[in-house]
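In response to the reviewer comment on reproducibility (Comment 2.3), we provide here a single inverse folding case reported in full, input and output, so that an independent group could reproduce the run without further information from us. The structure tokens appear first.
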């Protein structure tokens, strides 16, 4: 098993990888499928109506996550990775007025945003909590094509058929036997590291070389870090109130200014490092909540943890080196791949332990590696961070990735640094292996009530202040 760093870290848009980026990709895939299947059969001027229904968590929190907007953008041919927001809004306005999608080879596609998109809270599709069903209906009312997709976290999608046969390529995993280090457990990862004498980052780099050159890999890693850092900077500069009705104010910019004033006056408490981690993470997740450009790490809801710890490493750690950032990302991705393969990175599937918990484990591993940790210490750091997120629910207030999601990323970043530091104080030996911790996370997620898995039916989402 091998999951590329570019599958886990993908440039996209907020507010959610599973509820925004995944549905956008699914809608685009369905339009392509319709055009492929129906193009040859359609006489000139023939038209089909597209219908879509959202199920499970997508139905319960899709409004707050802008899933309806994402589906429409996907149907219109937009992609999350290169979304032009101005063009997107113009296309959405045109769709609302004309109720038509762009034609192709004489095949006209109709879609009415008011009637052809349904948030179906009654029917839960069997494959995953994030289900989408698309239909193409002809002018006589006959259903010509139906396809079910599942948005399984991190922007990954699979069809109903792919999920049934367990096709790994559908969700980014690669079983290419030419990968020199195809570890699918942490135990195998440590064994291969010991036998080869390579670091986790070096093994991940060797696996990436099967697909791309060193130059392409390095350029791609620089692009990921650049996108992450630019997101931090935008969040640190932006002010105002987030949309959605909760009247949540952006705080990162004001906090950032406070920290600079305190640093200039040399009046900082020893624990101020926690504030720096918080402000970097909150900057990213305020941008995500506003629908801005972010990098899945491994999801949008947890997108602030890895960039925050990277900024902490670069700007605050003694001996930090910019040229070690690729090793941080490769190591983090290796841990994220293990968690995704053996458990989940989807909040709708396993709660926030699968999102911020996974991100914290990834960040802890990356930081430990660039601070000189051995593979055993890196595995220990990831385990500590994940262990102390077990059982965390996903209960966004009003279905928005604002409360508790923005602050939660800051706390996840702090846990990552604490975990890396604790692991570096030891020799890598510890009681609970990472594989067992991942299994515990999977079992906890399976037993967790759906009320606490991104449905906003329990927890903080229903315990609001009385005014």
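Designed residues, in position order:
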């Amino acid at each position: 098993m091998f999951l590329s760093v570019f599958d886990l870290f993908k440039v996209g848009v907020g507010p959610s990888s599973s509820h925004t980026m995944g549905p956008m990709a699914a809608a685009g895939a369905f339009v392509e499928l319709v055009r492929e299947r129906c193009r040859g059969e359609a006489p000139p001027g023939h038209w089909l109506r597209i219908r879509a229904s959202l199920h499970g968590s997508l139905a319960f929190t899709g409004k707050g996550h802008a899933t309806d907007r994402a589906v429409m953008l996907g149907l219109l041919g937009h992609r999350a990775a290169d979304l032009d927001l101005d063009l997107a809004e113009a296309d959405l306005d045109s769709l609302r007025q004309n109720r038509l999608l762009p034609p192709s080879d004489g095949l006209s596609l109709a879609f009415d945003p008011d009637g052809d998109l349904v948030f179906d809270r009654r029917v839960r599709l069997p494959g995953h909590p994030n289900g989408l069903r698309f239909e193409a209906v002809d002018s006589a009312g006959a259903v010509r094509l139906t396809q079910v997709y599942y948005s399984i976290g991190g922007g990954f999608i699979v069809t109903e058929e792919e999920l049934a046969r367990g096709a790994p390529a559908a969700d980014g995993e690669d079983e290419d036997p030419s990968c020199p280090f195809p570890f699918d457990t942490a135990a195998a990862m440590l064994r291969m590291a010991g036998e080869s004498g390579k670091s986790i980052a070096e093994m991940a780099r060797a696996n990436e070389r099967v697909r791309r050159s060193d130059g392409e890999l390095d350029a791609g890693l620089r692009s990921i870090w650049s996108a992450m850092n630019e997101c931090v900077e935008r969040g640190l500069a932006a002010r105002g109130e987030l949309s959605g009705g909760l009247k949540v104010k952006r705080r990162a910019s004001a906090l950032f200014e406070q920290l600079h004033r305190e640093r200039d006056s040399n009046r900082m408490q020893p624990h101020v490092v926690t504030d720096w981690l918080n402000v970097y993470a909150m900057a990213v997740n305020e941008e995500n909540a506003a629908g801005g450009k972010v990098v899945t790490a491994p999801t949008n809801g947890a997108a602030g943890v890895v960039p925050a710890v990277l900024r902490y490493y670069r700007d605050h750690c003694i001996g930090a080196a910019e040229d070690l950032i690729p090793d941080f990302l490769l190591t983090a991705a290796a841990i994220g791949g293990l968690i995704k393969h053996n458990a989940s990175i989807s909040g709708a599937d396993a709660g926030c332990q699968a999102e911020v918990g996974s991100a914290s484990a990834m960040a802890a591993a990356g930081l430990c590696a660039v601070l000189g940790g051995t593979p055993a210490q890196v595995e220990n750091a990831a385990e500590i961070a994940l262990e102390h997120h077990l059982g965390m629910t996903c209960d966004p207030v009003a279905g928005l990735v604002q409360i508790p999601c923005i602050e939660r990323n800051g706390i996840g970043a702090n846990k990552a640094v604490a975990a890396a530091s604790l692991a570096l104080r030891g020799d890598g030996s510890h009681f609970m292996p990472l594989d067992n911790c991942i299994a515990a996370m999977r079992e906890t997620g399976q037993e967790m009530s759906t009320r606490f898995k991104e449905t906003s039916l329990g927890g903080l989402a229903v315990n609001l202040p009385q005014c």
